[in-house]
Design goal:
Blueprint: H1 33-61, H2 65-76, E1 81-83, H3 84-91, H4 95-107, E2 111-116, E3 119-127, H5 129-149, H6 156-173
Antiparallel strand pairs: 1-3, 2-3
């Protein structure tokens, strides 16, 4: 959403004597007016896109966008199965949230869990034939929604730039080190 014309495009005026954390240093590099416009445009576009795709999938397939993504990942995996930890890493969600999502997908008959024979604590999520059929029926409408919302609005050069920019941002937010504090690694 666009800020009102009277709202500052940089940092708000701090309250007198606020408690400061290390992250709230007075040395902050506040966004310029141009950076603030880019940032707010990004937030507005991603919020609207997430909502648009979620509503389309709820209406046409009876599932939220995140469930569709889980079904796609399972469909792309060998034997349509993946360790739950790998599926959480792919979806960028906590294992607890994934467990809840898979339970809902199981209730619909689209996914089933199987124990891992080599690890008593591990489980696989497996896409069922019914889940695969739902995915095949849902995919054309979803692809159409993505195409209309994103690709049809951009030139080929803009598409390439967007892909490069998003890849750079994603790579910067996913450290490779083993001790990275990422929710899907917990």
């Amino acid at each position: 959403m666009k800020a009102p014309a009277s709202a500052p495009a940089t940092a708000p005026t701090p309250d007198p004597a606020p408690e400061r954390s290390p992250a709230a240093s007075s040395d902050a590099r506040w966004l310029t007016d141009d950076e603030q416009r880019v940032w707010r445009s990004y937030l507005e576009a991603t919020t609207l896109l997430d909502d648009h795709l979620d509503r389309q999938l709820q209406r046409d397939a009876g599932m939220p966008h995140i469930y569709y993504g889980l079904l796609v990942k399972l469909a792309e995996s060998p034997r349509r199965r993946l360790r739950m930890t790998e599926l959480a890493r792919y979806a960028k969600i906590t294992r607890s949230r994934l467990s809840h999502a898979v339970a809902r997908l199981e209730k619909s008959g689209w996914v089933r869990r199987e124990d891992c024979p080599s690890d008593k604590r591990g489980q696989f999520a497996v896409l069922t034939d019914e889940g695969h059929a739902v995915l095949r029926r849902s995919a054309p409408g979803h692809v159409n929604a993505v195409r209309q919302a994103v690709f049809d609005r951009l030139t080929p050069e803009q598409q390439k730039s967007l892909g490069e920019i998003m890849r750079i941002i994603a790579e910067g937010l996913q450290p490779d080190e083993a001790g990275a504090d990422l929710p899907w690694l917990r």
